[in-house]
Design a protein that fits this description.
- This protein has 416 residues and is α+β, with helices and mostly antiparallel strands.
- The chain is 38% helix and 20% strand.
- Helix 1 packs across helix 12 and helix 5 crosses helix 10.
- It is elongated, with a radius of gyration of 27 Å.
- The relative contact order is 0.13.
- Bound molecules: histidyl-adenosine monophosphate.
- The site of histidyl-adenosine monophosphate has 27 residues, from strand 6, strand 10, strand 11 and helix 12.
């Protein structure tokens, strides 16, 4: 029978990959908490309409990359491609802003997009993210970007650049869009098919085209940041001033646009040269008004970001900052004739004392067990001998026989 494999672009995570992904999440979670965010969990399945209304039908994410299907009752469901819309729905559904008009959420979990898989791009991937609701002031954008920078800093990623732009608001964007569409129509023969398609459906996205020849044409295109109304301009200045005051590095990118429709004003991306085509590690921005499109108050301000957890993990590994895979504190190995029950009692005591314990209590020979210890690289291991004594091994060196309790206590002491 043919062996079964995971779905293309959906990875099994185990060993160091699973533990370091968890560690990246833990770092982000801890930092988000410092910024006043509470952890939330929303379902992985949502109604398709949620993303059509918020992310937008003309975007690649909704138009091309959704895992959508019809449920038995005829409703259209999908695997979530991102979490901002889900958190917004949750906030509206549960009236979370009723008692307190401000709410900061943190989330970590899997997202699904049917993209072409490559390094750093998967069909099931993970994000950690935050969404701040009810804070219209530029200081919230600054706090959000500062949190993104703190996560990058905690992972030792110092080559990541924060790019900052603005896509305007419903006041100024229609006139900018009109100018851009006129430009794109004028240059149509020089542009790729995709840009020509996007001219009518999603013209701002054209600016993000990967084709070098299109990018040459766009040198003369009207840019979002040059076309802001006064309110958006003041907001943008406020964000830049706040970042300057915090001493956070950023680069203003006048042509920065995002692949999701809900953004208003501030957009930002933290990019790196180290992941090939997948340069964005963290991305986000302001999305005032999104609550309106999911049935809530149109007047609520919101800003947030999401980081690709695998991308953070890949970069952290390249930077040699992978502290994530913490081995057990101690390994217990029994001699072939040792009573397993005695080892279990010892392990129970150690675990109650807070130590992480792994063991090989099988009937395998000492050689096989020593090999196992070498493979899992335990600095401390306790060999329980058949005569009731124990030998402590520290980094492969055997010490003299002591009582099992003493060996365990000694073994649990840090080597350094
Ligand atoms: P996004 O730019 O679509 O934004 O995704 C955010 C991050 O998720 C990307 O920068 C990237 O690191 C990671 N990512 C996206 N697609 C993939 C993939 N196929 N494989 C691996 N990683 C991927 C959002 O999702 C917005 N919800 C961000 C946001 C939150 N805006 C405001 N609040």
């Amino acid at each position: 029978m043919a062996s079964l494999r995971s779905v293309k672009g959906m990875n099994d995570l185990f060993g160091v990959e699973a533990s370091s992904l968890g560690a990246v999440e833990a770092i982000a979670r801890q930092l988000a908490k410092r910024w006043g965010a509470e952890e939330v969990r929303t379902p992985i399945l949502e109604k398709l309409d949620l993303f059509v209304r918020s992310v937008g039908e003309a975007t690649d994410v909704v138009g091309k990359e959704m895992y959508a299907f019809e449920d038995k009752d005829g409703s259209s469901l999908c695997l979530r491609p991102e979490a901002t819309a889900s958190v917004a729905r949750m906030v509206v559904q549960h009236g979370i802003l009723r008692d307190n008009p401000r709410f900061r959420a943190f989330y970590a979990g899997p997202m699904f997009r049917r993209e072409r898989p490559q390094k750093g791009r998967y069909r099931q991937f993970h994000q950690v993210g935050v969404e701040f609701f009810g804070e219209p002031d530029p200081s919230a954008d600054v706090e959000v970007i500062a949190l993104a920078a703190a996560i990058l800093g905690a992972l030792g990623l110092d080559d990541v650049v924060v790019e900052l732009g603005s896509v305007g608001c419903p006041e100024c964007r229609p006139s900018y869009r009109k100018k851009l569409v006129e430009f794109l129509r004028r240059e149509a023969v020089q542009l790729c098919d995709l840009c020509n398609q996007r001219t009518e459906s999603n013209p701002l996205r054209s600016l993000d085209c990967k084709s070098a020849s299109c990018q040459v044409v766009f040198q003369d295109a009207p840019l979002p940041l040059d076309s802001l109304c006064e309110t958006c301009e003041v907001h943008q200045m406020g964000v830049e001033k706040g970042l300057d005051q915090l001493g956070l590095d950023y680069r203003v990118n006048k042509r920065l646009v995002r692949g999701l429709d809900y953004y208003r004003r501030t957009v930002f991306e933290c990019t790196t040269q180290k992941l090939g085509a997948q340069s964005a590690v963290i991305a986000g921005g302001r999305y005032d008004g999104l609550l309106g499109s999911v049935g809530g108050d149109e007047g609520v301000a919101a800003v947030g970001f999401a980081a690709g957890t695998e991308r953070l993990q890949l970069l952290a590994r390249e930077a040699g900052a992978e502290a994530a895979h913490s081995p057990a504190d101690i390994a217990i190995v029994t001699d072939r004739n040792q009573k397993v029950e005695e080892a279990l009692v010892l392990m129970q005591g150690l675990r109650s004392a807070g130590l992480v314990v792994v063991a090989d209590l099988s009937g395998r020979g000492r050689k096989a067990k020593t090999k196992w210890l070498g493979r899992i690289a335990h600095r401390h291991s306790v060999f329980l001998e058949a005569d009731g004594s124990a030998r402590l091994r520290v980094e492969g060196m055997e010490t003299q026989a002591v009582s099992p309790e003493a060996a365990a206590i000694l073994g649990a002491l840090p080597v350094d």
